[in-house]
Structure formats: structure tokens, C-alpha cells
Amino acid sequence: MKLTPSMLRLYAVTDRSWSADEADFWRRVSEAMEGGAQVVQLREKHLSHEAMLRAAERFVALCRKCGAVSIINDDVEAAVASGADGVHVGQEDLEAGRARALLGPDKLIGVSAHNVEEALAAQAAGADYLGVGAAFVTGTKSDAAPISRETIRAITQAVDIPVVAIGGIGPENILDLAGCGLDGVAVVSALFAREDTAQAARQMRALAEQIAR
Asked: Where are the strands (E) in 142-200, listed by range?
């Protein structure tokens, strides 16, 4: 699959902690895509392997129905079994080159990076895009220290693959990322903590267009 920079303007990363129940969670995922998220990552750190597989299958089907790219966080086996479009791995997760060997040449691999060294290593290992951050203080990952705009800019200048910023990004601060050379933003609470997820996505997509290189 070919991932164009414009597809990454708004990258949604799921979080069910703001959902009242299962139906509400899937409603929010669907609304994120309706509002303009063309790439969505299923992030389910607390599910058992069996539950993750079931969720991944439902997720992939929903993304296909909505015309969005389906990415599974960390779980390469679930990505393969569900037929997802790709996987996203962190620095502590499965190494990108190993993920590529398991997924094959046609699937997408995203890698988290916090500095130029990690970004270049991920690109060399076959990553299709990078998620860099944390851009701001975030409640999603308590151990994710913010990196400077200068570091983000250095990463985007060092690599040839698309780059999105992640971490604490919302409508109140996204424009601070202008001039960093980013292709888009990956957001969690800015979408899934909002009752009207579709409207939140439309707002974030419009703002992301303003800061994209």
C-alpha cells in the first residue's frame, strides 16, 4: 500500500476510556473517519490476545467500509490475522525490520521516534512513516517527555518518509507546530474525549491542513 503525505493530515489513535460502552466506542471510531481521519490506529494495550484479535477484525472491517487505512498498534500477529493495512511499533516494541519480515513488503509500518538517530534507524529498517513526540505534555503516556520544535524540525529534515507529530495535540496548540515540516498530526483525546467525534475530527483536520508542509 502507498501512503501519501496528505492521507496523514489527521491520524486518529483510538482510546476507549472515554466511551460509555462498546457501542459508543465503535461509534466514535466511525465518526473520526467520517470527520476526516484517513488513517486510524487501533490501540488496545489492556485487551487479551483473543479479545485483541476480535477487535482488530471488527476494526479492519469498519475502516474498509469507511475508506480509511487500518493500523494496529504493536501487535503484528493481530495485524496479519485481521488483514490490517499495517502496524505501528514503538522503540520498546518489535523492531521495524523484524516487523517488515513478518508483514511482508506490501503492508505499512509506522515507528515512534524521539530524535534524529531513531528516525534514521527506523527509515533504514523500512518504516513507511514516523510518529514523533511527545509534541506536548500528554496524559495518554505518562512517561512521554515532550521534545522541542527544533528536534521535530530536525527529524522532518533528516528523513524522506512522512512524519506526524503525536502527544498532547489539540485545537488549542496544534498551530504551534507550524513550520516543523510535518505531514500531519496523530491525536487521541482531541477526538475520542469529545462527544461529537465527527465535528472534532473536522476541526482538527482543518487545522492540520494549516500546519502541514
From this structure: 163-166, 184-187
Residue 37 CA to residue 8 CA, distance in Å, equals: 8
Asked whether the whole model's pTM tops 0.90, one would answer: yes
8 A C-beta contact, residue 166 and residue 133: yes
* Catalytic hit among 9, 16, 28, 43: 43
Rounded CA-CA distance 13/201 in Å is 12
Q: Does 9 qualify as catalytic in the annotation?
A: no
- In the three-class reduction of DSSP (H, G, I as helix; E, B as strand; rest coil), residue 69 is classed as strand
Q: Are 161 and 130 in contact (CB under 8 A)?
A: yes
Look up 98 and say whether it is catalytic. Answer: no
End-to-end CA distance of the chain: 22
Question: Catalytic site residue 28?
Answer: no
Closest by Cα among 79, 106, 105 to 94: 79
What digits encode the pLDDT tens for the residues 75-134? Answer: 999 999 999 999 999 988 778 888 998 999 999 999 999 999 999 999 999 999 999 999
Lookup result for grid cell 496479519: 80
Instruction: Report the alpha-carbon distance of residue 116 to residue 14 in Å, rounded.
Output: 27
Say how far apart CA 208 and CA 9 lie, in whole Å: 6
